[in-house]
Amino acid sequence: MRRPTLTAAALALGLLPAVALAQEATNTPAATQPSQGKWYVREKLQYMRLGDDPSPHDREIEEVVATTALTYGVSRELSATVTVPVVASWEEGHMGDEDRFGTFDSSLSLKWRPLQWDLSPVDSVRVAFFGGAELPTGTGDLSSHSLDPFVGTVFTAILGRHGINQSLQYKFNTGGDEFNMRPGDGPDDALRYDTAYLFRLAPEQYSADTTAATYLTFELNGLYETGGDNEVLIGPGILYEARTFALEASVGLPVIQDVDQRPETDFVLTLGFRFLF
Fold this sequence. Notes:
By secondary structure, the protein is mainly beta. The protein has 1 helix and 13 strands; from the N terminus they run αβββββββββββββ. Strands 1-2-3-5-6-7-8-9-10-11-12-13 form a 12-stranded antiparallel beta barrel.
């Protein structure tokens, strides 16, 4: 096995902020954040198909959600994020068809990373805690019309060509409709449990010529609601990361669906773009 040169190691150390951001898979948080004084913009375009609706509407729903997340590095350990989702949805049901366009509730959050062990210029183990609230800023019925706090924690390990993220988030829903449309937005509290594995396809080793990296990702994304609903999606993805930007794509398919109070998720396709400045 070829040993990395001092030059390659120094380069990897210089790339570490960008590499660390790349260790965040599409739908699973990571214990990474921009450096102090830096901004991180993330755009995600998500297509979702929902069906098997238990409500009297018996809806089949297709929606496209464009989510903008803007993160600022307050310090080395603390960051702040504002997230704004814009949605277009098409519903077909026994009570007629309906098209909607507007915004879901936006959110404000803080992430604090008190623990970080850098094992090498690239390898790292990190733990972060985050919390915030979804604000009743959505359009009409697309909003929960309530202030919904959430808290969570995330573990990240970057070991050679391998990366893993494990996240738990609990949201206290103080409003919401009995037959809500979106997972986690009903009257019951929601526990999200997410796991992501990332494998660096290229380069095999960092060198003085390295300008970007490509990752294969695999995610398990679960949502349990205290009313009893539980749903788990799995799927692969791809992530390409350069020094100041990244491109991503992933697919989510259901493997567990025990859902009685909202439509089931049939399929999710996500495309994304990230920019660090």
